[in-house]
Structures are given as structure tokens and as C-alpha cells.
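The protein record quoted in full:
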Amino acid sequence: MMENVFGVDVAKAWVDVVGPDGHERVGNDDLKAFALRVGKAGGRVAFEASGGYETPLRTALGSAGVPAIRVNPRRARAFATSLGRLAKTDRVDAGAIREMAARLDLPECPPETKEVSQLKALQLRRRQMVEDAKREKIRLSQTFDKGTRASVMRVMRLLQREIDSIEAAISRCIAGSEDLRSKAALLRTAPGVGPVSATALLAEMPELGTLTPRQVAALAGVAPMARDSGVRTGKRRIGGGRKSLRDVLYMAGLSAARHDPSLRAFSDRLKANGKAPKQAIIAVTRKLLIILNAMIRENRPYQPT
């Protein structure tokens, strides 16, 4: 039903809304009032993931109890193109998102708890600092000037102190939440899952334990996608999903394939059947993620097979 659907295009300081009464622009300071108005009308709101700019809107919707639908921007753009809407403005995008939510059976995204929101922010900041430290390490290897090397090393020490401080805050955040603490303990029983990968799963995949095996693999971007046409069978590749999480999970899968007997045997069988080593690791990563999803759903530790 289009009557109760609101499509929202998110900007830095405001959102463009297309609803039953047409288009309006709502400032971030007025999002709470907007959410309450939508709640009274029994509506639901669809919006694009916008790199964090959608957080104030999502928080306001959660506080008002309004169903929220978060849409992948690439999928929203493809939907608009399929309708012949090639122009791109904030108003056009909001209208396309509204129509997409009305026509398709899109899942709602539940509101995040305060602890998960805090953990996600800390995890993002840690990842930024680690990337900065990697860049400084590369710069150190590329310069031989004494003064420049001293500058780079000072920055590296500062970044490491910040990383240590953020990791301590992450530990306190998890320890202060019974739900996060119990889930982290379960995840850590699995091979290859250490503090970093457990934190990434808790922060970047809060849906873990509520998804089907196919859904959890697609969400992390480790599900192979077919590329066949006519008599041609294309090479399967992974893609999409949450890349930062996939990068962490790949390292967990690599460790699990080396140290867990059952997953190592699974990897060896794949390579014996002609799979490349990297393909085998990706398959192990997908299998491990499916196991982790079942562990959280059933509230049980890892059980080797």
C-alpha cells in the first residue's frame, strides 16, 4: 500500500521525503517530530544506507516505533533506472525509494540498541586507525630521510596508542552488555574467531542468528554468484555485501582452515577437486559464517564435526 510508505533520501543536514502528501524537506533537528508524525499515521519509512548520515533518522524512527527499511543504494538506483527514471535528484531518489518499498517485499531493519550503536562506532574508528597505521608503515618504507622517518614513526606511535585505547573501550563496551558479552563468548569458541573478528561480527552483523544460511552468506558477500549465458558457464565470483566484514572473516577463515581438523579437511577436499587455494579459503569462510549464525541462533558453542 503506497498510502503509508514514505521514501527518504538522506543528506548531511536534512532529508528529502516523498510521502502520501508529496515532497518535503526535513532538517535533522526536526527528525523526531517527523518520526512521531509518521508513527501516528501508521506509516513506514524506507531510506538508503548513506555511510552513517542515516543514523539520526534511524534513531528517531526507532524511538517513535516506526518500521524502518534500509535500502542498498545500488539496488535503489537500479530500480529507478528500471522504471525509466534516469534523472537523479534528491526528490527523484526519494520517490523511487518509496515506490521500491511499496512494490517489493523488503525486510525491516530493527532499531539498534545503545550498546550496539556504541560498539559499531568504536569498531569503525578502530578500522580507520588501523588503515591509517598501514599507510604510515608504507610511507616509512618509502622514505630514507632521517627527519621524515622520525616524523612518520611519531605518527605511528600515536596511532598505536589510539588503537590500544579504542580496543580497551571496545572490551569495556562488550563487558558492560550481557547480550554482547554472551554472544562474544560463543563466537570465540569457534576456530579462527578472535577478539577482532568477534567484535566485527557483533558490530557489523547484528542480524547474526536470525538469518538463513543463504542470507548470511549474501549479507557478508561470500556467496558465489553465477554468470552464465546460453551455453557459456561463467566463473563464479563473490561480491557485494559488507566488504569490511568480509575482509575480517576471510582472515578468520584462513586461520580456521589451518587449525581446525574438520575445516582443514573440507579445504583439502576442495583443492583436491581443482579449486584454487583462495577459492577454498572463501568456501571455508562461508561455511564458518553459516556455523557461527547457527551457534548464535541455537545459543551453543562451536562443536567440531
Observations:
- Residues 195-298 form one domain.
